[in-house]
Amino acid sequence: MTVMAALAVLAGSVGLYPLFTGKGWFWVALGSVLAVAVGGTLGRRLRLPAAFTAVAGAAALLVYLTVLFASSQALLGFLPTPGSLGRLDELFGQGWKAVNDYAAPVPLVPGIRLLVGAGVGLVAIVVDLLAVRLRRAAPAGLPLLAMYSVPAAVRQDGIGWAAFAVGALGFLALLMADAREQVGGWGRVVFTPRWSQEVPVAGAVGPAPAPQRPDARSLMSSGRRIAFAAVAVAVLLPTVIPGVQPRGLFGLGGGGGGGTQTVTTPDPLVSLQRELTERGDAVVLTYRTDAGPRPDYLRMYALDQFNGNRWSFSSLSTGDRDRLQPGVELTPAPGLGPVRVRRVTTEVRVSRRVREMDFLPVPYAPARVSVKGDWRVDDASRMIYSPRDSASGRSYTVVSAQTMPTVRDLAAGTAFPSEIARRYTAHPRTVPPEVMRLTREITKGARTAHEQAVMLQRWFTRTGGFRYDLSAPAPRRGDDLVNFLLHDKRGYCEQFAASMALMARILGIPARVAMGYTPGTQSGPNEWTVRSRDAHAWPELYFEGAGWVRFEPTPSGPGGAGQGTATSPSYSETTAIAEQPGEDGQTEPTPSASSSTAPGASESAAPQGRPDPLGDQGDRGSPQEDDGTPPAGWIAGTVLVLALLAAPMVARALARRRRWSALRPAAGDGPGARDDGGAGFADPAEAAAHAAWRELRADAVDHGLEWRPGDTPRQAARRLSELLELDAETARSLGRIARAEEMARYSRSRVPAPAEVLRADVRAVREAFAASVGRTARWRARLLPPSAMAATSQAAQSLGRAVGGRVRRDGGRWGRVRDRLGGWRSRNRDR
Question: Does the domain formed by 658-789 have CATH 1.20.1730?
Fold first, then answer.
């Protein structure tokens, strides 16, 4: 079992291969598994308790990791010391930082290798404890499954079927080894000759019949039926659960028909970080456009939900109504009014080397898209996505409606629709008060929403002291956000876009985070090339009449504005109303005193046309903010799990209450029990005796005490008294229960004790049972009473027999009908 447990963990660890760039991680994992196996074997040889056996495995794992990563600081090269433990802790921190900085596959730096060895080793400790020490091989599959959940959560494609098959075979081999040892504990299998006409009679001459194996054909047939049913359920059931198989059965379908499914995609922020930090600078796409010398950004994602830690986009459906129709004009983008709009045509060619691109990079806002394949459009965000196709190697044409708002247009667009304000100004109540106060201080003196947005952008790019740094970790918690805004002040486009969008929402301005690519670099007349380093994130703010417009809070770096090809729109650089026509026909604002006003320079009122969203409320959130209430599905699932866990305890309590209230025993426990068919016993005292005896038996079973069904009441009471060493009073209570059951079974002249006395005796004996067993047995008797579990199992078996009988009767009836129909068709054919 030790060998099979180690092999099962190694087979399960094969599923981790997509997470790393090399193959060295497997040898680290192999050493961890071998170390745990040696430590567990040593603990079992010393006959240590189960918990100490796990400790022995953990100690062996620590020694192995010390030799591998901190031998120079260890005593004799392998014994852990404070210095070696400090070195392991340092490497652990470096590995954890690398996990957060890189997207899979990650490089095998020493910290990553340490995380692999420790993680696989912990799984090996749990599997060794469950399968080898506690002989519970089936639950050992849970930690093995946990290793598969890591690549499934990180990568969209999960792992290949071959790696999953290797892990599944390892777990099945562990189960087979456990079953073989369990059966082998009973001794050698005994075979007997079959009784048949070929068995010679007494005195016959000839060799005796050879022992033959028992006829197991019926068992094999049942096993095959059960296996086929289990596989069918495992394969077919996920296909009818929404969201579990978004690409259809075996990835061959999905998206068609009239149903809808949920679109899943890799985390856009993780993909952005991977493209910005990878060493190469591969070409992502090329395009031709008539947008002039300054094309707009190519947007892929619009992240509209903020949970306090991360930005994400709302769920997207894959219904037929969302499908792109060739040559069909899309509905106008939300919020467009009298603002100047020009039509721009863009022809895009995506590189074949691009992978996992399920969203098309398009200029905002797309009005008509010509692309082959199954592609959909989300009306609210104008994201173009596919539930099953990829943009890799595709060419497509986009006609977009590019808005050209002026400062005057944005200054007037402050009357936000209620639906837009409710959805895009929501933020959690967990936003730190420091961020609320900082937002108010930065925009102090602003008169319009546009002025507030310009002040925020200027604070990030000029006056706030921020610098562009790709090595900065992304904020994960409220404290990280405070540190980024007030202390560290370094990051890349993700941090700046997410922070400005959140601060705009705090001010009551609808905002979201957009992601995609900057225009790239010009490679020819009207031709542009976009590389992986051009990946970018920016905030989009909503102004009525202009719709969603972009801002650029990422500060300039050594190569330009962050990514180097990022540019700031003219309307985001000033709050002046006086304007002059620009080179490309756009209006270029001229600077004014208001455009250079520093944050906090005046105490003006809130922006005109809108009430101050902060006002006297201090640091309280806006009325539309999210209160962080868990989704209804999680609440329902939690309630269901708690109800299932409490079901045995509730069933036991109901059975006890019903037994004492109705005093209707079921079938008796011995040969002398009298049953009147469920109508109850004529004598209430006799019924109380049976109820007390059945309650005593259930309590004994619940507390793990041996109960022999063949014992008489007197024998059972004597054995329990000797086993538990009861005190005199409790022994008398047990004796009264046994005598009452004897008289109820065998005597018609003597009357058992009253129900109240027997009920008190049962309660006293139950307390004695609980005091005589360990804490684990007591809690099991309360939470998972075996008597209730047995009753549930018997009820399920009875139901199964009833259903099976009904199916057989119906099958016979339908068989006779089929025979009659067959005879009728045969006669008509002959006729």
Answer: no
